[in-house]
């Protein structure tokens, strides 16, 4: 079980260390055109944690994930990844982050192998073609290596997206509603993959709308409501699903 | 520094590999460019078009002997040079806009841009890579359109082919610098369609006018002052390259 703790007032480590938490935020906020998207988010996620981030549509889940991915800047507060300030070191930190979303983030006309090899080269991966072939084997798409993603089913596309996100062997995996549009079989395969990755020591943050599935996968759950943390608890409690549901429908 | 160059090569190589597979952009812009030149040629009238070569004479020699120079051209100006250069630039501009749009559109499918922005690559490098892609596309475009205009308008490039190539290369860098930046701005907004052309045309007017006048002086009037606008072109290139490098981070949104 992960040991996420929320403590906005905590002191910050002076330097990056191997043991620094993967994610630390303090008073993190984002305001767009006077509209508050995120407000005073403070959380710390240690290495190897698996956090489910839940919330209704528009609660700020994806924005928070995009902030953590360094794709969207926060307008207030601090964000440290691996003990380093994101504002100062974003480009280098990106090399340690992988992201999957309901969009594949792939080039639809480029064959699967070339797609992965391209991203591998961009991240400076040694022998990118070989690594791409290994990952295609892992996600059971080796037979489709020369096919472009535009010919893939939704489930295959999501598996290929996972392979893309793992090309550079990231320490932190951000999964933004990755189950969207998947059938039961593909959903189960994705679950298994996430479990494997967590078992291999990856730190994972997952946003999702399925409460039961989220609580089953993650070690801890954070529920956002109108951009604020409304609930933070370890999973495993039988009454947790109902508490989460009450917040989501309130 | 070598990492930057290799990242540019990887990024531009990806764009060109996609274009080689789909031919979505080039197929369209080449046809559009040729159509523009032909329609302008027909619209300007037969006196601006390439004259039929006299028996035993080359087309260019015949053009020089034809008393049908462009209106306003200096005495002794080669006919067809001014309208030919103008038609070429109109074709480059419109087809160029489609190139810029096409090269950015690749990033908008399936959230590919977010995947790119997640990579540990400086945003300025992304800008330069897109610029290289656009320059390669425009070079291919020029290799097709220039002979068409030369044949149709009958102007002779042989007196200064190097100067023509140099002026066009410098102009293309400026046009692509503006186009790459504005294509990113427009693709990040919900307003697309003709907005890119409306943004690029006024901004690139100094470049297009200077380049056109230089080419007309060079080929129409065969003037030694043909390269006198070079400073303006180079200044335009530098200003928009620096602006693009610095501003690309601000205009790219996943």
Short structural description:
Chain A has 250 residues and is α/β, with parallel strands linked by helices.
Describe the structure.
The complex is a heterodimer of chains A (250) and B (254). By secondary structure, chain A is α/β, with parallel strands linked by helices. Chain A is built from eight helices and ten strands. In chain A, strand 4 and strand 5 form a beta hairpin. Chain B has 254 residues and is mainly α. Chain B has one domain. The longest helix of chain B is centred in the middle third of the chain and has 31 residues. Chains A and B meet through helix 2, strand 6 and helix 3 of A and helix 1 and helix 5 of B.
Give the key terms.
heterodimer; A: 250 residues; six-stranded mixed β-sheet; 8 helices; 10 strands; B: mainly alpha; 75% helix
> What is the oligomer described by this structure?
heterodimer
| Relative strand content of chain B | under 5%
The major beta sheet of chain B can be summarized as: none
Distance between the termini of chain A: 28 Å
Residues in helix, % of chain A:
25-40%
Radius of gyration of chain B: 20 Å
Helix content of chain B: over 70%
Number of helices of chain A: 8
- Report the average pLDDT across residues of chain A: 88
